[in-house]
Design goal:
Elements lengths: L12 H31 L3 H25 L5 H21 L3 H28 L6 H6 L1
Helix pairs in contact: 1-2, 1-4, 2-4, 3-4
Length: about 140
């Protein structure tokens, strides 16, 4: 794992970018619940089948997060966070363009994997990027 050195500053600007990314991930992961009837109608599937998109996202997130975090341990945190957000954005485009259930399912799995890298990494980076006495504030942002 690459070492993250505390900057010991009170510059919170990078933290707001991390918070924005975390907000985007959280919003995307929960907003689908209200869209399930529309998704089911558009894809000609049951609402129960559409609900599996939520379940698969949660499972993919839970299973991929520790594995991908371990596999990307040697990558610079900043580069990894940017890459995770790029993949997250591209996976959203893929989900938007999905013509069938399985393409949407694949997009949701890719979304979960990128979120599983970004959120824990953002929390770790936030805590490590400020002086020790400011870590609570950094994580709260």
């Amino acid at each position: 794992m690459t070492e993250i050195k505390s900057q010991g500053t009170n510059n919170y600007t990078p933290l707001f970018w991390l918070a924005l990314g975390t907000f985007a991930v959280g919003t995307e992961s929960f907003m689908i619940a209200g869209l399930l009837p529309d998704i089911a109608a558009d894809l000609h599937i049951s609402v129960v089948a559409a609900g599996q998109l939520v379940t698969v996202f949660a499972l993919a997130y839970a299973l991929s997060s520790p594995v991908l975090t371990a596999l990307t341990g040697a990558v610079k945190r900043r580069s990894l966070m940017i890459a995770a957000m790029v993949v997250f954005a591209l996976a959203n485009v893929l989900a938007w363009a999905a013509r069938d259930y399985w393409m949407l399912m694949a997009a949701r799995i890719l979304l979960a994997a990128s979120a599983g890298i970004f959120v824990p990494g953002a929390n770790a980076l936030a805590g490590a990027s400020v002086a020790p006495e400011r870590r609570g504030t950094a994580l709260a942002i």
